[in-house]
Every structure is written in structure tokens, then in C-alpha cells.
Amino acid sequence: MADEHRKKTSQSKNAARLHERAKKRNYLRPAPHEILSERRSVTPPTRPEPGKIDLGVRKAVKTLQDAGIETFESCEGGRGHAYHAPTVAFYGTPEAGWRAVAVCLSYGLPIRSLQRVWSIDDGNEPTGPHWEIVFKYRPG
């Protein structure tokens, strides 16, 4: 009986040690929503309202529109929103994405990624492409 207890204790210590080692080596990556919750958020999440720009991306949308970039969709991301992270979608030529990145960087907006997207609509027909900028946290 004592041997079984010692064996279980030893196994749980080894498991805990392996888990800590994996965390240090970044083998256990957090989910995207966990990353967002760890990062600071400039604005608290708001309740989505159709036809209105979410507070969490209002600054980014205005900055891009003022630079002549034609945005058509935006979301501050999070629970109850269309995107998991703050995102602004816009139309444009292949160079428009890079121009949008330049604008965001010059205004200090926290870009996570730039994506070229083709959506698959009803009837399995691809539409697009359009651009999406995903932010690290809500830029305000």
C-alpha cells in the first residue's frame, strides 16, 4: 500500500515537472482568446450594435478611412462578437493592404496580422478577395 502511494506521488511530481518544462519551452500555447485576455485592453468590450462602429476599433476605422481606405466591416472582437480579435476589413487592390499597414504603424496601432481573405458564400462560391487587419488588442 505504501509503495502504491509513493509511486502515485512520484508520478504526479513528474507530470507537474514535465508540464512546467513544456510551459517554459512554449510547447503549451494559449488559445487566442487567452492571449487577448492577458494583454492590456485600451477600451472595455462593448455590446455589439448593428450599424454602429464598436468603441474598441473606432480609432482604427477612422484612421484608415481618413487615409482613403474603404472599410466595410469592423469588430472589436471577443465574446458575442463576429470576430475573436479586434478586426477591420476593407476593400482594395493588392497594394492597399500594405498601405493600410503603413498607416496603422505610423499611428501606433497594435497590428497582429494582415490577411487577404476569400469568403465562401452560399452555393460554395468564393467571393473576394478583401483585406483584414487584426489587432493585438483593442486600439480604441
Polypeptide structure, described:
By secondary structure, this protein is α+β, with helices and mostly antiparallel strands. It folds into 2 domains: 1-30; 32-135. Helices cover 37% and strands 22% of the residues. It is elongated, with a radius of gyration of 21 Å. The chain starts with a helix and ends in a 5-residue tail after the last strand.
Write the SSE topology.
Elements lengths: L1 H23 L7 H7 L19 H9 L4 E5 L11 E4 L3 H13 L4 E11 L3 E11 L5
Antiparallel strand pairs: 1-2, 2-4, 3-4
Give the helix proportion (percent range). 25-40%
User: How many alpha or pi helices?
Assistant: 4
Order of helices and strands: HHHEEHEE
Biggest sheet layout:
4 strands, antiparallel
Q: Tell me, what's the shape? A: elongated
Which class do the helix and strand fractions yield? alpha+beta
| First-residue to last-residue Cα separation | 61 Å
Q: State which percent range the strand residues make up.
A: 15-25%
Number of E-type strands: 4
Neighbour order of strands in the largest sheet: 1-2-4-3
User: What number is the mean pLDDT?
Assistant: 79
Whole-angstrom Rg: 21 Å
Q: State the domain count.
A: 2
- Runs in which pLDDT lies below 50 for 5 or more consecutive residues are none
